[in-house]
Fold:
Amino acid sequence: MGAAQIAVPPLPTGGHFFDLWPVRELPELGLWAATHYTSFAPPLFVLHEAVVHSSAGILATGDSVIAESLGNTSPSLHSYRQLVKGIALQPKRISRLSGSYISVLAAGEQDVRHALLSGMARLMAVPDTYFAAADGVLVPQGGVAQAEMLGLFDLLPSLTVREVAPDETLVVDTLIYPLSVCGEAAYHPCVGDFYRRLSANVPSPPSRLPRRIYIDSRGSGLRPLRNEADLIAALDRLGFEAVRPETMSLSDQIMLFRQAEAIVAPHGSALTNLGFARPGCLVVELLMDAFVDWSFRNLAALMKLRYDCVLGRARRPWPDLNIQFHQTPWDISVNHVVAAVAHSLAVAPARAA
Structure:
């Protein structure tokens, strides 16, 4: 599967914020003005006598660990020890797995973004002939919405589903290993096919679902938006209903996003569901100036959604990017958000045509 260029439309109003105050973009400055991204070209490996360690799918051949399989892992959660050069696996039990297995193991399986995009979406990089030859698929034990995803993904009925525990190690006769379909948020077009495949097996949404939704982040401990209650009240006057996708089944989330005509949300994993929205749906993402990540802008571009953003400000000096950084409280101008949303709603019919 080769790379592709995906057009990224300009920001209707959000670009103005980059002239107002310093902004830290990840992974580099200036991406707000990008006109396209080049998608990741998903590599596929077939390994014999492969060692697969933990629910994160840390991969080793011989005495070498494949560095790319260590993403988002930690020694304490995934049973390994950090060395001066490399790591030492610390399995509690080792099992032999005969036959051929496809691995969609990935760290962060309790986060919907990692579970969907870092994990299950990689099945789209596996050719049908490999599915036909495989005996099963390896998935993380207890992954969020995993059973639903497996049920909705219609290529799996003939395969054995083998859950892998965080402290478990497998020696697999033949491992089929799709590395990624996303890269650093450089989504391959097959990611769109993945979302459409899941959506196809969910019934049409009932008409009572809200058409304008705000993703309420008050249940998350990450980057608390201090004036979120005021923002929700202001958006309510524009017909937006606050929702919490993390309290819903995957099927209900799919129906909610598929029905939406407009979505406003702080940056967060719930926006992984943008892949289920219909082309032309409006998305206004709220970003903190100290942590501007364009993952969901790229996803919106891939799925042909109309995207804009509004920047808020961190309420303390920018720390380094570490685990504490995600607790940084921030504020956003309610007036700026309302203006950006109202502007985009006003031009929606012309843009969607």
Summary: Residues 144 and 166 are 14 Å apart (CA to CA). The mean pLDDT is 90. Residues 334-352 form the longest helix (19 residues).
